[in-house]
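Q: Give me the 3D complex with adenosine-5'-triphosphate.
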Amino acid sequence: MAAPELPGPELPGPELPGPELPGPELPAPDEPRVHVAVDDLHVRYSAPDAAPRTGRSRLRRGVDAALGRGPSVVVRALVGVSLVARAGDAVGIVGLNGSGKSTLLRAVAGLERPARGTVLASSTPVLLGVNAAMIPDLTGRENVRLGCLAMGMTPEATAAALGDVVDLSGIGAAIDLPMRTYSSGMGARLKFAIAAASEPEILLVDEALATGDAAFRERSRERMDRLRAGAGCVFLVSHAAQTVEETCTRAIWLHQGRVVLDGPAVEVAQRYRWFAWNLAQGEDAVAERLLEEAFRAGVEIVVDLDGAAGVPGGRGVRGVRHARRQR
Ligand SMILES: Nc1ncnc2c1ncn2[C@@H]1O[C@H](COP(=O)(O)OP(=O)(O)OP(=O)(O)O)[C@@H](O)[C@H]1O
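A: Here is the predicted complex, encoded as structure tokens.
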């Protein structure tokens, strides 16, 4: 079943007239500092064309053949995404398969080169993905050591964190077994625990929390709360909108690479769930209406990063100007 097309006009680019943006952000004591600022981000991939058109020019086919590649198409994974995340934010990202959630996380981590737009972060984000590198023949404990050292922790801090990582992951005695014997859920939980051990200022989590039982979800929620209380911020990609409702303060709903809604986690996740449920029931027309209503209800975030820069020492990104405008 094809997902509905996102309604509404093309999102305007920065060259179109927008609202007056406030002056450069001043370090107000009561305003949490900005950890991540994304301005008009576009990410594109080239992918093999699953249904090559017969009308391709001979020249194009000749070039493809000469380069030893088949026909390809450009996938617009992110289309004009703008957002600002501050200290204390736990931002859930929801959306259908292929809506751009993981791409957004990877772009914030600096792992994707934008076709257009800018991503600024106050410090190097720690990305915990389901594909994070772990060595299957080493034990969980050895992987914890390697992972912590790879994140820049000292050997002493690594040794001190070990017990905490094992407790958070809920792996128990299996921590001394090779990781190839772990279920995918065990591996994902251990990766989350490793990433959280370094207490990063910006933690990016892709799906891991959905793999745990209720006790693990509760422990991870506490850990994310602790990071936020320490003025960090967390991004969490999850197919389980309920996990986002339970663990996040804010949520962003992506559809076909665009932001549909950016607002309080419960409201955004519930609207997304209702949309996704209707789609799953084959109620395409209802789903389309819900998507359109959500898109029109959402505000557009306009971010201006001219002159903005990350400040060393975890003091945020300074100079970010942003405004919200009704679509
Ligand atoms: N390396 C890649 N090469 C080509 N296309 C890609 C690549 N990575 C992602 N895409 C495409 O970009 C779009 C967004 O993918 P992305 O993985 O960000 O979506 P997602 O919302 O995280 O999906 P899922 O929920 O299935 O994990 C999809 O159309 C996907 O097929």
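A quick observation: Residues 8-18 have pLDDT under 50 and may be disordered.
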